[in-house]
Every structure is written in C-alpha cells, then in structure tokens.
Amino acid sequence: MPLKRLGDPAARSPPPDSHHANSERTLVAIKPDGVQRGLVGDIIKRFEQKGFHLVGMKLIQASKEHLKQHYVDLKDHPFFPGLVKDMNSGPIVAVVWEGLNVVKTARVMLGETDPADSKPGTLRGDFCIQVGRNIIHGSDSVKSAEREISLWFKPEELVDYKSCGCDWIYE
Predict the structure, then answer these.
(1) Angle in degrees, CA 113, 102, 82, rounded to 5
(2) Do residues 120 and 1 make contact, with C-beta atoms less than 8 angstroms apart?
(3) What is the pLDDT of residue 18?
(4) With CB atoms counted within 10 Å of each terminal CB, which end of the chain scores lower, N or C?
(5) What pLDDT digit, counting tens, does each position of 104-136 carry?
(6) What is the reported pTM?
(7) Considering only CA atoms, which of 139, 4, 109, 5 is closest in space to residue 47?
(8) Which are the contacts of 76, defined by CB distance < 8 A and separation ≥ 6?
C-alpha cells in the first residue's frame, strides 16, 4: 500500500485493510533531558521492538504557552512552573505511536514517574535517577492521548500506512 501524502484527506482515515479496529494512538514526548543525553534512538528502538507503529514524529522547541496547555491538568501543583521551565529548556521529540492498548503499554514501558520507583527494563528504570530528569512523557489515558496528539500534531502530519510487520505482530 503506498504512503498517503501530507495534505491528502485520505491520510486522516486508516486504510481499510489495517488492524486499526483494534488499535489506539498515544503521544510520547522525549523531554529535553532525554534529547540532550542522546537517548532518542534508544527510546524509539524500544517502541519499534515492542511492535508499535510509528505514525508521527517531530523535533520541536515548545513555547511556554504550548507547554502550559499540554500540562494544564497539573497547573495547580507547586511543581508546575518548574516543569514548564524544564520542558522549555531544550528541544523535545514528540512521537505518535499506534497499536493495540498502546496507551497502557507505553505507560508500563516508561516506568513510574519517579525513577527510584521504576523497575529495571523500563525506560525510566534504565536511564533515570531523579524525578525532575525523567526523560519522557506518555499520555495517561486514551482521552488525554487524543487531546495531546491534537495539541502537538496537525492531522496531516500523521501518516497512515500498513507496516509490513503488522501481520507478524497481530493475529
């Protein structure tokens, strides 16, 4: 199946023969500390190895206003200003992954917010020490994933295609 081109209205809807009926999407954002430490490739590799489908990715220097919108549900917490400042301190790699139960599975792959509570084998368990430098954000529900994806990506920036590995991942 050929790739759908940006701006093509058909790019907004899944191909009819894909596994999309059993899948969902999530946003994973590699934070400035993860980008600066050169962990982007390792993080992407883990999601690809798991079998998730990459449908969007961009490197962006997010504005403070954009980050305040992203973390609006945390605005009343005392750590909010520091979180926005840290996320604004460098580039972020925003990635949209697709797959069966991707939101829940991605959260497990990330590990606990506090790396000290994260198990080895999780991204934070393997690559982080302190909560203020926990390298990655992942949507916490399907509803928040939908909101976050629309905040970080225009519909035409997401590409639908059937991966040749799909039949080897899904029954």
Answers:
(1) 30
(2) no
(3) 46
(4) C
(5) 999 999 999 999 999 999 999 999 999 999 999
(6) 0.86
(7) 109
(8) none
- DSSP code for 4: P
Backbone torsion region of residue 7, taken as left when φ is above 0, otherwise alpha when ψ lies between -120 and 50, otherwise beta: left
Closest CA relative to residue 59, chosen from 77, 35, 41: 35
Taking only Cα atoms into account, the Rg of the chain, rounded to an integer number of angstroms, comes to: 16
pLDDT at residue number 4: 46
Question: Whole-angstrom Cα distance, residue 141 to residue 51?
Answer: 20
Structure tokens at 21: 């009926």
19 a catalytic residue: no
Match 């980008």 to its residue by tokens.
Answer: 35
pLDDT 10s digits, 66-103: 999 999 999 999 999 999 999 999 999 999 999 999 99
Set 19, 53, 70, 137: catalytic member: 137
